[in-house]
Amino acid sequence: MEQRLPQHIAVIMDGNGRWAKDRGLPRSEGHLAGVNAVRTLVRECRRRGIGYVTVYAFSKENWQRPEKEVRFLFELFLRFIRQELPDLMKEDIRLAFIGDRKDLPFTVRQALEYALKKTADNRSMVFTLAISYSGREEILQAARRALAANLKPEELTEEVFRSFLYAPGTPDPDLVIRTSGEKRLSNFLLFQSAYAEFYFSSVLWPDFGPEELTKALDSYACRTRRFGRTSEQLGGQTATEGKKHE
Ligand code: IPE
Ligand code: IPE
Ligand code: MG
Questions:
Q1: CB 59 within 8 A of CB 187
Q2: Residue 225 domain-assigned (yes or no)
Q3: Averaged pLDDT, 95-116
Q4: Is 186 a pocket residue for ligand 2 (Cβ < 6 Å)?
Q5: Nearest CA owner, ligand 2 atom 12
Q6: Structural domain includes residue 151
Q7: Could you tell me what percent of the chain has a pLDDT over 70?
Q8: Which residues lie below 8 Å from residue 7, measured CB to CB, with a gap of 6+?
Q9: How buried is residue 106: exposed, middle or buried, by Cβ count under 10 Å (0-12/13-18/19+)?
Q10: What pTM, to 2 d.p., does this model score?
């Protein structure tokens, strides 16, 4: 039987540091291994026909990490964007960005903007990088832009407000995955996750491969999404049916 797939998966990739520590390696090795897991995730999601994948690569709060680690991460992002571009083109994947562009080092911003433009017409999947991202900041900047647009209070509907978010064309995530056993949002997609299903895995991000993705998708397929309604209103599937596989 065809499995119900999420249209948009958002991933809080956590546990690179612990993965490295477990092996007696520097944290940077964990981040390097994490990049391979991102590549696998994107390829697998594309193969399975998932339309949108968003990965949380660096939060606003992550600027508080040691300068050396931050520098390493941005070098990694730069290399990643440049290296992935040919594959993104080949696989017809559009790159997108959410976060605070003005925080990015010039070279990263330049490579990013080049890749965004180059992949703009790709249609098979949207792969969004969240870098220097903060959900609260996204909401605040939307409010500021709404004010600057001189909207009347009654004109600011949910739909209009959404148009001021970073990626207005991207649907809300259906499934939010977080690895490494932490069960928190850490300021990720606060507005958009209102009705997301959550999947928490104890696996550290560099070890999150195709089998782990399958587990997350299987779990998602068994959930009953009620959006505030009763099971009877939804017809067919009952809440217990939704729960029994968890
Ligand atoms: C996630 O792994 C990657 C980033 C936040 C950039 P961490 O670096 O947070 O790894 P842990 O949580 O220390 O294991
Ligand atoms: C969340 O991971 C941010 C990213 C995955 C980029 P963190 O490791 O920074 O989150 P906290 O600090 O444990 O909440
Ligand atoms: Mg972490």
A1: yes
A2: yes
A3: 98
A4: yes
A5: 186
A6: no
A7: 95
A8: 50, 51, 52, 171, 174
A9: exposed
A10: 0.95
Per-residue pLDDT of 39-89, as tens digits, reads 999 999 999 999 999 999 999 999 999 999 999 999 999 999 999 999 999
Q: Determine the residue of 68, 180, 203 to mutate for testing ligand 1's pocket, defined as the one with the most ligand atoms within 8 A of the Cβ atom.
A: 180
Q: Which of 192, 217, 243 is nearest to 45 (CA)?
A: 217
pLDDT tens, residue by residue, 114-143: 999 999 999 999 999 999 999 999 999 999
Strands (E), 1-155: 8-12, 52-59, 93-99, 125-133
Residue 128 lies in a domain: yes
Which residue's entry shows tokens 């599937």? Answer: 237
**How far, in Å, from the CA of 67 to the mean position of ligand 2?**
16
Q: Which domain holds residue 62?
A: 8-135+172-242
Distance 9 CA to ligand 1 centre (A): 19
The CATH number of whichever domain residue 99 belongs to comes to 3.40.1180.10
Q: Which residues have a catalytic role annotated?
A: 14, 62
Q: Specify the amino acid at residue 179.
A: T
Question: Which ligand gives the minimal distance to the CA of 18?
Answer: 1
